[in-house]
Amino acid sequence: MTRAPAGFGDSSAGDQLDQPGDELALLERARSGDQAAFGGLVTRYEGELRLHCYRMLGSFHDAEDVMQEVLVRAWRHLPAFEGRASVRTWLYRIATNRCLTRRARPAPEAPAGAAFMPPPPNAPDVEVVGLQPLPDAWLGEAAAPAPEASYDLRESVSLAFLTVIQLLPARQRAVLLLRDVLGFSAAETAGLLDMTVAGANSALQRARAALEPHHGSGRVPRRARPADDEAERRLLEAYTTAWHANDVPALLSLLRADALLTMPPFPAAYRGRDAIGQFLRTVPAGGRLDQITLVPVRANLRPAVAAYAPGAGASSAYGIMALTTDGDRITEITGFADPALFPAFGLPARLER
Predict the structure, then answer these.
(1) Which CATH code for domain 229-352?
(2) Mean pLDDT of 253-272
(3) pLDDT of residue 164
(4) Do 307 and 292 meet the contact criterion of CB atoms below 8 Å apart?
(5) Cα first-last separation, the chain
(6) Domain ranges (residues) in the chain
(7) Is the pLDDT score of 256 beyond 80?
(8) What is the mean pLDDT of residues 303-313?
(9) CATH of region 1-101
(10) Nearest alpha carbon to residue 63 among 149, 5, 168, 142
């Protein structure tokens, strides 16, 4: 794949955007072939564009790939950019359309040697889709939601919300994200997607209607409770302590009665303490939870743990468990059995004993 221009990401050029008209000046310099100016022009939007691609695709690996394509396309087509919309809107147009044509990567397989023979699932109404958890470090440059947005940042990166919108047709998903998450107007959204305004409004209505049952069930709250850092810290500490002690009753006491356990992309879902307890007693390390080492991390603005499976002389990366919390209870455990996730979380592939 063609690489982005060598001067991309020059922060000194980006620092020149403090005054009105600076973006126009950088645009003119970039059109003349100034790669540093191009870097300054697009770097300020890179974080929010990458996050938009993640929401569209449900995969930060795919989002990274698409962002490279976006930068290359923007550089190549910059001379044709007429300035009828802002640079930001133009970049969102490129990014959204690249996401719409992106083929999903194959789902990860269970790690070699993993004994993955789960008990029968008991929540057939829950459709599991392939997702990846998002390291919180990715959100350091995310733009604050626009006043017109219906979702705040924490809501819009929750795994429950991302799961539900992945079930939407791709263009409905794009319209929902552009309108309700990013706050673009109906006219702007229609222009980004080459639709009529009526068509964009119709797609938005259908997408909102598809989300309504999930709002009603409480899995995707209409307005999420603000994060309670101390409550989350206590829950995570209690979870890891009970896990390392192989104390399943203590783990189950941390769950809400209707808690849900899923393992994207494996098509199985478990609802309630009894079903989740049966899973924990039989699947992870054959029920020997104490053989699996958990390391606290953060994913999707929520607590999570990285799991290391036992091995000869060292524990090997196994997967990430993301925890959705509500007050002092865990409402959802989402497990991702994919060691390839660990580098993005800054974690080693092995833990020496």
Answers:
(1) 3.10.450.50
(2) 94
(3) 93
(4) yes
(5) 40
(6) 1-101, 144-222, 229-352
(7) yes
(8) 90
(9) 1.10.1740.10
(10) 142
- The residue ranking higher by pLDDT, 325 or 219, is 325
Amino acid making up residue 309: A
Residue 248 corresponds to which tokens in the numbers above?
């399943």
Q: Which pair of structure tokens corresponds to residue 274?
A: 């009894």
Q: What pTM, to 2 d.p., does this model score?
A: 0.89
CA 219 from centroid of its chain's CA atoms:
17
The CATH-assigned architecture of domain 144-222 is Orthogonal Bundle (1.10)
Q: What is the pLDDT of residue 12?
A: 46
Long-range contacts of 77-85 (CB under 8 A, 24+ apart): 78/30, 78/31, 78/38, 79/31, 81/27, 81/31, 83/27, 85/188, 85/191
Asked whether the beta carbons of 157 and 139 are under 8 A apart, the reply is: yes
**Residue 10 in this model has a pLDDT that exceeds 50:** no
Q: Which of 8-17, 159-168, 330-339 is predicted least confidently?
A: 8-17
Q: What are phi and psi of 266, to 5 degrees?
A: -70, 130
- Tell me the C-alpha to C-alpha distance, in Å, between residue 167 and each of 6, 130, 213: 38, 10, 13
Place of tokens 């429950």: 160
Lowest average pLDDT, out of 2-11, 66-75, 269-278, goes to: 2-11
305 vs 211: CA distance, rounded Å: 28
The pLDDT-based confidence of 53 (bands split at 50, 70, 90) is very high
